[in-house]
Amino acid sequence: MTTSIVSEPETAPADKNFLPGPVLLLGAPGVGKGTQAKALMAAYGIPQISTGDILRANIKSGTELGNAAKALVDQGTLVSDDLVNQMVADRLKQPDTQRGFILDGFPRTINQATWLDAQLSAASNTLPVVAISIVVEYQQLLRRITGRRISPAGRDYNIYSKPPRVAGICDVDGSTLIQRPDDSEAVFVERMKTFEAQTAPVIEHYRKQGRFEVVNGDRPVEEVTVGIVSALKRLRNDSNQ
User: Fold this and answer.
1) Looking at the annotation, which residues are catalytic?
2) Which domains, and CATH codes, for the chain?
3) How far is CA 79 from the centre of its chain?
4) pLDDT digits (tens, 9 = 90+) for 21-75
């Protein structure tokens, strides 16, 4: 089933009085999800909740959940949904989540999505999750990822969209640019397969509930932000009716 991309007005400025609630940003590798998450964080003063960050913080702090997770990680075993859910539940109790938050890397499975829905519905004055998927055409994503080149100092280039003046050479210090192993086409193909397999059921879960919308990510960053803000406001208005 294909979801049409909804057009947005040219401007959709963030409103400090608007309550964003929990937002799940979805997107394949290279769509710019991290950049858009930062824009929403700045616009609404809400945190980004990353399960990877939560996991590392718990392990570093030596919490009970962190120690349990570390034992699994050390064994090369995946951390269970139940353990991840408990960590997320603890994070959602912190006061900075009251107006909303941006979910990163969670929920990845239907079990996690249904757990999260139940967790939020049980809390007083908490809005349900809305899911927004940033979509970019496959070949464009491939060029974004495989075209990346980086200097030893961390300067970024792209041989297709932001090439250096001299091929393979940093404009600033003349150093040799490299392609990271993770930016190869073979790795990208596998990451896309994993993304699609994990995300499809979660998308369908929120689509069926009328809490899902697609935004065209193949535009300048600011225009994509406008689209996300517009989609978020539409979804919130619909869910409150």
Assistant:
1) 33, 108, 148, 180, 191
2) 21-137+188-240 (3.40.50.300)
3) 20
4) 999 999 998 999 989 999 999 999 999 998 888 999 999 999 999 999 899 888 8
